[in-house]
Design brief:
The structure is a homodimer.
Chain A (H helix, E strand, L loop, with lengths): L20 H25 L4 H5 L2 H11 L14 E4 L5 H11 L38 H14 L6 E6 L6 H12 L5 E7 L14 H10 L3 E6 L3 H13 L5 E6 L22 H11 L40 H13 L5 E5 L3 H4 L2 H6 L4 E3 L4 H13 L3 E7 L7 H9 L4 E6 L17 H6 L4 E4 L4 H13 L3 E5 L21 E4 L6 E5 L2 H15 L4 E5 L2 E3 L3 H10 L3 E5 L8 H11 L6 E5 L10 H7 L4 H11 L1
Parallel strand pairs in A: 1-2, 2-3, 3-5, 4-5, 6-7, 6-8, 8-9, 9-11, 10-11, 13-14, 13-16, 16-17
Antiparallel strand pairs in A: 10-15, 12-14
Amino acid sequence: MGIRALGGLFMSATTATVPSASTIEAVKEKGKRLSILSMMSTTAAGSGHPTSCMSAAELVAGTFFYAMKFDPKNPNSPDGDRFVLSKGHAAPILYAAFAEAGVFPESRVMTLRQFSSELEGHPTPRIPGVDAATGSLGQGLSVGAGLAIGARMDKSPTRVYVLMGDGEMAEGQIWEAAAFAGHYKLDNLTAIADVNALGQSEPTMYRHDMEIYRKKFEAEGWDAQVIDGHDVAAVLTALDRAKTIKGKPQAILARTIKGHGVSFLAGKEHWHGKPIPKDQLSAAIKEIGTPIDLPPDPGRSYARTSLPKPPDFPTPAAPDYDPSKPIATREAYGFALKRLGAVNPHIVAISGDVKNSTFSEIFGDAFPDHFYQGYIAEQNLVSAGVGLAARGKVPFLDTFACFLARAYDQVRMAAISRSNINLCGSHCGVSIGEDGPSQMALEDIAIFRAVHSSSVFYPSDAVSAERLTEIMARREGINYLRTSRPKMPILYSKDEKFPVPGFKVLRKSPQDKVTVIGAGVTLHEALKAADQLKSEGIPVCVIDLYCVKPIDGKAVAEQITATGGRLITVEDHWPEGGIGEAVLSALAQVGVAPSKSRLIAVRDMPHSGRPDELVDAFGISARHIVEAVRAIA
Amino acid sequence: MGIRALGGLFMSATTATVPSASTIEAVKEKGKRLSILSMMSTTAAGSGHPTSCMSAAELVAGTFFYAMKFDPKNPNSPDGDRFVLSKGHAAPILYAAFAEAGVFPESRVMTLRQFSSELEGHPTPRIPGVDAATGSLGQGLSVGAGLAIGARMDKSPTRVYVLMGDGEMAEGQIWEAAAFAGHYKLDNLTAIADVNALGQSEPTMYRHDMEIYRKKFEAEGWDAQVIDGHDVAAVLTALDRAKTIKGKPQAILARTIKGHGVSFLAGKEHWHGKPIPKDQLSAAIKEIGTPIDLPPDPGRSYARTSLPKPPDFPTPAAPDYDPSKPIATREAYGFALKRLGAVNPHIVAISGDVKNSTFSEIFGDAFPDHFYQGYIAEQNLVSAGVGLAARGKVPFLDTFACFLARAYDQVRMAAISRSNINLCGSHCGVSIGEDGPSQMALEDIAIFRAVHSSSVFYPSDAVSAERLTEIMARREGINYLRTSRPKMPILYSKDEKFPVPGFKVLRKSPQDKVTVIGAGVTLHEALKAADQLKSEGIPVCVIDLYCVKPIDGKAVAEQITATGGRLITVEDHWPEGGIGEAVLSALAQVGVAPSKSRLIAVRDMPHSGRPDELVDAFGISARHIVEAVRAIA
């Protein structure tokens, strides 16, 4: 069993069994080799976290070389078991395990952290076998839960292993994920906790009190086993037992020693994130086992050259709205998802207990097997989406736009993961009205623009909301849709196209004095202002900037130049990082600057009131646009 | 005992006791009145969450009118017990309790959610008695923990009560706070969970399985009691018992019914966030008790006019650096905090297990009673800071800049709380080097700029880092300090002043062709570029933009105009929302546009490498600045 896997394609025990003495010995040797390679590579790099690797050596060896089924020639295959290194700073031991498994040569680990190497300081999907970037702690269990749900949807026997540190178990997201996995009875998910009792700066909160962790996982409906993480027989037995548990995820809670195996490191503080000095390396290696002599690395890169793209799908049914009936863009999002679900079986939606506000319930009611209740746990919502995307699903994740701020670090990490995820944030801006500022997203454009690989869409009617949702399902990267609470008139025919980048010119004449750019409620305010100004003899150009990122600066510049360089932007958002700055920045990129401009935005802290009262009181209504136009026309 | 408090200044049992039948009856009546006022005010408003109030009626009545000591004439006094409504959507019952207590007239609750009323849809500190805004769920327990720690530091007998909903207990932050409060043995903190089993869109994950909640709190070292939340005797007994527990925070886990007391609401789905229709209100009220006849509200505002400011303090010792020795700004932050601690007893620092990287340990070693280990739980870190600030402390909260993204929703809510908190994010940008992108903050300027009331400081040497830290301690609002990992040369003498807004002109001649604006590592690259360009006969003006928000647009415009309107910004940050856009936006506000500009920023996803390799490879080094200057000069 198991140990035969050491030769090539890994094989594992499929029923609970007693590992043989020779198996235990072989895994023990693998663990020593992983520890030694972790020390060697970090000392060579001059930085890194060897002691955080050494506490996990037997856990990683047992998981990779005993428990997992995994094809080292195709390490990202969804058919293989998956391993998520949630404690990303232990990257060197992950790379050592991949090397030992034959994913790349052992010599490659000695390029750790070099500019030219794919073996980065923390794992990213540039590295073969890695599904998601880790290194911001506490996110891996959610990613693993997403992978596990995806595997279950695919009826795949794939198992998912997540290695966590105890330091990161202070992150609330771990417990969001534990609750989520327990609730959905993800018995194909095994979490392994490397409880080495030392954080970066001092001992962890619970040190080696293993029973606290047991109680916490058991409370969430998990099977939990406490073991000595350096006892290979115990590790293998626990891994075997985990596979036999039905209807529950399993936690293997391993008591370990940071820096295990080397006397001057083991259990010592002040060694976190420090490589072993060159002159002490050989002594340290000798304490663990035999020195490893590696050939010079030939310098061939093993970076993954192709990363997953969203799967293609047939054109969905066109939007179908009565042009005389106003409808909210948030509701159109729900209809769009439902139409997409009919032609794209990869779509999976998760809502943060607001499906009846964001309208993802329209999709959920139509495709209940593709819809998950995410409860009020936005961090897990986003990272689980990253796991789903890594398995080829097309996740649509929704909550109020302001609450996506709760998962901003997870979105940031999703970008580093080169993940293709779609986020819908409803209830943007002061136009939500009476609920008050805690429910108003006034920073979402800024924060989503500042994500690498992101696209930011902001529809102003139901047709564009639907079309942009379809575009998101086909588009790589982090896609964000900003939807609005109020009903708004239909602007476009159902066959209108919405290229990315792009915008629509809704009012235009050769006499236009100013270009006014808006989106969402402010576009409708701009249209009202334009009608009034036209009657006053001041025609203006009005642009619907449905795509806030990317922006075609040249095309925008042409419009603005045609109105004498006079520009007004107006947005239901803070001025910082919003539409105004996005437009100025896009113009600067093509060497154009407006001759006169006004960036109209929300500048004071709003409070409760009716939407129309707030839009006016906080300075973004037609009246304010008219005044601004008069001032610069 | 207790019930006598109903008349005016509240009094409570100070030892465990058996509440009398008349006390129970009186609190029961109060609970009914609170329910009825919650229904009346939301129906009048036409929106709001009456059923979420009704589940908590007896809990709120018992807490306010039996357990708490509280002066309704001075409801924010730190001498009184504190009440944090973590489930902020139950605001109407909080306002009803304040009204019943005499903070404002009962008629005032009928102005709920109106534009002209301070009684917003969710609580904010504009409302007397409220310490922190709630409404983004799961943050109140952390705020309560901060208040409780502050009270303990002040040796105050103040107790802190936090009312949570079960829906929000899916948020990981609740469990970060529970761990934190348990670890610090905050026995002056009582959490009351209103477990009504219904979320917004469907039943909660655990419905009425009270034992799960009990296990979770007990695992964190809390005393936990499960009660029937509508049994007033049980509520009062639990509140009494909580006061007797020493060395542990206490959780009162109350099984409740959403919409309790009204047959067509009680325990029914699809009533979340819906007021009772006008034509059903009177029937609903009759099911609970006697209709309440209120006079018309006279319209007098009760909004708090003065909110807490950071306390003044004497000038600390000046920075003291050898001008020939480079030092990192992150280290200077630690020295600054220590110097401040010597003159300002209100300073409290919390670090997210990185005190040896952010250097807050320098302060912690000097003032151990003013330093808390926050472990790896950034959300709790920030919200606990809000609680400390509400008690008049001056919190300094630190972690890597990228991990502050983990707490962005909490920062957003801190702004709505009109909180005065100071955040230090170290390890910004690609210049951290080998650790790779998961540890690099490339979006922090964007996200902190997009916070109302925020200031963003970005020092380029140790002296400015120290001076800006001192400025933060005196400054209202959300202050963010972006510190850097690499050592950098000293630029300023120890007596240099750093006004806000402001910048320093480090290279200047009448012949300057271009203004180059940088900060942090890019300022030093700009200085190198300027030296090279000068030798090539292309003198440039170099500006240290140590204050990225606010910016004095007029002053910046003068500099840029003096160089023919030619502008280059360079930053170790994504282009979106960073220094470049901040400068363009500030110029636009004063009607100035650069004639030619280049916004140099990090535009590709970075990876591991040496700091100097990365600064160059990702386009922000002196070489790139020189090229950009040549292109537009």
